[in-house]
Amino acid sequence: MEIYIYIITFVLFFAKIGFPVFLLFRLFFIVKPLLINLYAEEKFTYYIGINKSRLIILCSLFLLSCFLGIVFGNEISKNSDIYNQTFYTFLLVLIQFILLYLFEIKTPVHILKILNEYILNPKEIFKERKVVFEESKAISSIQNGVSFKDVINLSNGDIIKQIDSREFELIIEKHKDVFQDQFSIDNLYKLCNGIKIKEGSIAIKIDNKRNSKQNIVEILASLFNIQKNWNSQIKDRSNTKIIDFLNMFIIINQKEKILHSNDFTRLFEKLD
């Protein structure tokens, strides 16, 4: 019976303290870039993956977890009936798990994705994660008086759309798993807003099942003005230039696959 009491006490402590502390650490690392940018720029700006509404939701879930852990947890501790204490302890754990799930689906990077990246490359866990602030999309690399965005548009028919962070999130949300890491997502956001990035810096993983090449084609068609510059009837030079531009920055399955004109032609034929 003593061991049973110890187990229940440990589980209750975990539900009261463990969950809120974990959410606090997660919230801290989400808010930290906002505070650093606020101090450096003297201006509050959200970064891609977080916005005002999402931040309010995350803070509310954290506070609710704390409230339930403290108030509900203390009431359970005072209950002398061991069976009632057990039932309500596991009920509290269940509620805390639900709050944790609701919290994680609103974070810029899911904890499982962070753990997966750590397993693949443990050293990456110590590196500072770079975030892209909304206003940075207005800053492009200027060379010889011409911006990177202007060069791309002149060569490929004004394919740069200028997408705000919220619209970008909505577009990629359904097929977010095709991206190898958050760095690739950030670079795609930069590229679709005319900001120069390194060649091959958008890594894509496809398996021809849930994460297929068609998924990334649909994302790219939504982020760039490709369809209006596309000639589906012939292998037009403009089509080839657009594909070459995308393949320059996008690496699929470590260069085992590339984008082809037919990938977009099939999509646009379905849309017509």
From TrEMBL:
Residue intervals passing through the bilayer: 6-35, 55-73, 85-103
Record's keyword terms, sorted: Membrane, Transmembrane, Transmembrane helix
Top-level taxon of the source organism: Bacteria
Protein name according to UniProt: Uncharacterized protein
Source species: Flavobacterium circumlabens
